[in-house]
Specification:
Blueprint: H1 44-52, H2 55-60, H3 66-83, H4 87-98, H5 101-105, H6 108-124, H7 128-138, H8 146-158, H9 162-175, H10 185-194, H11 202-214, H12 226-239, H13 242-250, H14 255-263, H15 280-297, H16 302-314, H17 318-337, H18 346-363, H19 367-379, H20 389-400, H21 404-412, H22 422-438, H23 442-454, H24 460-469, H25 473-485, H26 487-496, H27 507-521, H28 523-532
Helix pairs in contact: 3-4, 3-6, 4-6, 6-7, 6-8, 7-8, 8-9, 9-10, 9-11, 11-12, 12-13, 15-16, 16-17, 16-18, 17-18, 18-19, 19-20, 20-21, 20-22, 21-22, 22-23, 22-24, 24-25, 25-26, 25-27, 25-28
């Protein structure tokens, strides 16, 4: 997603929510990212710590030492201040306690209590780095358990330390495998996204994926964790662990997993191309049925409606996708008249319902309606702030409609300096580049392209797209070949070059697609492609 909100303040009894593009995933896919902001809130363990932590404190109250009694009293006062969200007072009390002689006289459980409450106070004061450092300290006390390690993962996410977040989660799963189901979806997603292209964090990322799979971890909202298992499968193939790789591969059923397993020769030692698991038509049917079942089982979650609409749309079932989306829109309207929330995740997911409905309308050839719908979506707030995600997607839609001036205006509504992830900033600049080029503002376009070139590792596929827009087929071919050679990019690149339905393409998109085919047909690209896989035809929209 483009926007990475910080976790919410304490004592809010709502859990994190995942951040899927089309399904639960940790990698951005393509030039129109799924970027809905969700309400990021505290883990249950932190609610216990911040809003009702008393066991270690009460245990210490039996100690007769006046110094320890005073220290325990300080901890209780700090706890009471946190409950009232008076973080400054709590921080002052705990900072004084931890820097004085009374702290050393406390037993380890009481010290951990003080340090974790101090972490929460620092977090409440908008000091996530301090909160993270304190949570790391809490895990170093003797007797630190899963709560302390999960708190560390939470605060690592708040401090934007994906490597330590992944390491803390993996460590928790290794020591206490029965705790895996407690892992919060947002924290897991953050850890995996943040370590995806970091070679120094690959060990932590892979360890986390393996332990999540072995613990049968599932997101609390019922969304599909399969993209994570595919990422694990790629790692297992690289490591040569075919035994576990076969287990993982046999569990994968969606087209997003089945297609790359069919077309990439890496997977042939695990599952041959004629294996029943790799039947794409059966995979599409199973995915649609599974998505429908999830949607009906959790009718309070718009997230699952959106996922099902996305699956139907990609499977070329445009009329059915529109009907599901329209029913959800109607439900929101009915409940709004009664002042009742139609869905538990309405604020986060409603802009994405409109976004998906816009995509379906475009595929039905109703482009003007599609643009109006996405403009409406872009006006909806995203996580309490201005909507970056739908605004960027609107820019791409304007480009597809041959309206570069409107695309440029859309990008100007986004504040470059606030709230954007690196990936979101890259998408914004890609829209700007294509619009400027179409408007023949050559100097500005070249400046934007130079920025995309300098930051191309953020999204190699988007950089390749920009080069094709520029007519630089030599450059695009070089990028594609490099992606074939990079283990972390290989599957995405192979999936992109497969043949898909073009029924939903606009005239502008068809021109871009023709140039893309010219890149793929080049002899140097074909030689590189044949070394790693094959090209097949699929009755689906492109990813």
């Amino acid at each position: 997603r483009v926007v990475m909100q910080r976790p919410a303040k304490p004592c809010t009894p709502v859990r994190f929510r995942p951040q899927p593009p089309d399904t639960l995933t940790f990698r951005p896919q393509g030039p129109a990212p799924r970027t809905s902001a969700r309400a990021l809130t505290a883990l249950g363990l932190l609610l216990i710590l911040a809003c009702g932590f008393s066991v270690p404190v009460e245990a210490a109250s039996a100690v007769q030492s006046a110094g320890i009694q005073a220290a325990v009293s300080t901890i209780k006062q700090a706890q009471a201040s946190i409950e009232k969200e008076d973080f400054r007072t709590a921080w002052s009390l705990l900072e004084d306690l931890m820097s004085g002689p009374r702290f050393g006289a406390l037993a380890a459980p009481q010290q951990r209590a003080a340090v974790l409450l101090a972490a929460w106070s620092a977090y409440g004061l908008d000091r996530p780095i301090d909160a993270h450092a304190l949570s790391q300290r809490a895990t170093e006390f003797g007797g630190a358990g899963p709560d302390e390690w999960l708190a560390r993962a939470f605060f690592a996410a708040a401090a934007d330390d994906a490597k330590d977040c992944a390491a803390a989660l993996a460590s928790t799963a290794t020591r206490w495998p029965d705790q895996v189901q407690r892992f919060d979806t947002f924290v897991v997603q953050y850890a995996l996204r943040g370590t995806y292209r970091d070679p120094e964090a690959s060990e932590q990322r892979f360890a986390l994926l393996a332990r999540l799979f072995n613990g049968a971890w599932t997101p609390e909202d019922g969304s599909d964790p399969e993209p994570l298992w595919f990422a694990l499968l790629e790692g297992l193939i690289e490591l040569g662990d075919e035994v576990l790789a076969r287990r993982v591969a046999g569990s994968l059923t969606s087209p997003s997993s089945v297609i790359p397993m069919r077309v990439d020769v890496r997977f042939q030692s695990v599952l041959p191309r004629d294996h029943p698991t790799l039947d794409v038509r059966a995979s599409i049917a199973a995915t649609l049925e599974k998505g429908r079942a999830r949607m009906l089982a959790r009718p309070e979650l718009l997230l699952l409606v959106n996922a099902h609409v996305t699956d139907l749309h990609r499977a070329l079932k445009f009329t059915e996708a529109l009907a599901v989306a329209d029913e959800a829109v109607a439900r929101v309207a009915r409940r709004s008249r009664r002042a009742e929330p139609a869905f538990a995740d309405l604020d986060d997911e409603y802009p994405w319902l409109l976004n998906q409905r816009s995509r379906v309308l475009a595929s039905l050839g109703r482009l003007d309606e599609s643009i109006r719908q996405l403009r409406e979506a872009a006006l909806k707030q995203e996580g309490g702030a201005s909507n970056v995600s739908q605004t960027i997607n609107l820019g791409y839609l304007y480009l597809a409609a041959g309206r570069p001036a409107d695309a440029l205006v859309a990008t100007e509504a986004v504040d470059w300096s606030k709230g954007l992830s690196d990936y979101g900033r890259y998408q914004l600049q890609a829209v700007r580049y294509a619009a400027l080029r179409s408007l023949q503002r050559a100097d500005e376009a070249e400046e934007a392209l130079a920025w995309l070139r300098a930051n191309r590792r953020t999204s190699p596929s988007t950089y390749q797209w920009a080069l094709i827009e520029n007519g630089d087929l030599d450059g695009a071919a070089a990028v594609l070949i490099a992606r074939f050679d990079a283990p972390e990019d290989r599957s995405d690149a192979l999936v992109e070059v497969q043949e898909y339905s073009t029924a939903a393409l606009t005239e502008v998109e068809r021109a871009h697609y023709a140039r893309s085919l010219a890149v793929i047909a080049r002899p140097d690209v074909q030689v590189a492609l044949r070394k790693i896989g094959v090209v097949e035809r699929f009755d689906l929209l492109p990813p």
